[in-house]
Amino acid sequence: MPTKISNLSYVDPQAEIGEDVTIGPFCHIGPHVTIGNGTVLDSHVSITGHTTIGERNRFFPTAVIGSEPQDAGYSGAPTTVVIGDDNLFREGCTIHRGAEKEDHCTRIGNRNTFLCNAHVAHNCRVFDDVTLVNGVLLGGHVHVHDRAIVSGNTVVHQFCTVGTLAFISGSARATVDVPPFMICTGSDDFRVRTVNIVGMQRSGISESSVAAIRRAHRLFYRKNKKLEEVREIFSEELEGVIPMALQTLFEHFQAIQGSKAGRGREAAARSAKFNPEDINQQATRRAA
After folding, report:
1. CB atoms within 10 A of CB 103
2. Based on the number of CB atoms within 10 Å of its own CB, is 240 exposed (0-12), middle (13-18) or buried (19 or more)?
3. Contacts of 275 (CB under 8 A, 6+ apart)
């Protein structure tokens, strides 16, 4: 199918636009943008910076993708945004490109849903099948893992990690890492409340694994046992064969041991100096 670009939009001649792309009126596409096949921009969408977008993404009006990070140390370097396939960006979504830290990139995976006015700050990574509900704010360097749901008007502190299949309730203030498979609530009293049983069942996780996660939750949060104790209990009972879901939960607790303020990734704050040659090499490959 041919690409359709409204004559009321501006698309820089250097931008790379795939097949069967629809760009509605009053959109702005910058020179270093790549848009994959089958992607649709309704209207009033701005995509700037060194931004690469995969296939079959949908952008609703007033979405802004790839603009400069809100980072005091940003000096204008050509950092990036990379977006996968089949994502949905509703009205007013903002995705900022990376700051000159970590891998210098903001990354969005596949099949994610960003509802109205959701914000993804610099150097975040949103994995696959994630839902950010209306008004969610992700601070810089946040990681949100597969199939997590962050409910409306929730704020996630910079460098937090939200685990696989975690659920955060509306208007929460997440200041620490959120364990996989758990439900967390609260603003001034943010904490784990229970296990996301429904989410696990809907994702096809076996009943035995769900039962193991429920028991681990009781051991960690009701009996206040340490990771090493819980590992030993399950290792003896299961004869060393640990279900994948339970291993994922153990890895979460391992990551936050000795961490700063309950955020395992906080040490990344000063890692990986920016190298402009990384971007130059990417641009050379695109032009080839």
Report:
1. 17
2. exposed
3. none
Query: What is the per-residue pLDDT across 53-93, written as a single tens digit (0 to 9) for each?
Result: 999 999 999 999 999 999 999 999 999 999 999 999 999 99
Q: How far apart are CA 39 and CA 52, in angstroms?
A: 12
The whole-model pTM stands at 0.93
Query: What gap in Å lies between CA 107 and CA 129, rounded to an integer?
Result: 14
Amino acid found at 88? L
Task: Give dist(CA 47, CA 97) in Å, integer.
Answer: 11
Residue with tokens 């931004």: 51
How far is C-alpha 174 from the geometric centre of its chain's CA atoms? 15
* 8 A C-beta contact, residue 123 and residue 141: yes
| Residue 47: per-residue pLDDT | 98
pLDDT digits (tens, 9 = 90+) for 206-242: 999 999 999 999 999 999 999 999 999 999 999 889 9
**Strand 28-29 to 10-11 pairing:** parallel
How many residues are given for the chain?
A: 288
CB-based contact 103:273 (threshold 8 Å): no
Measured from the Cβ of residue 257, the count of other Cβ atoms closer than 10 Å reads: 10
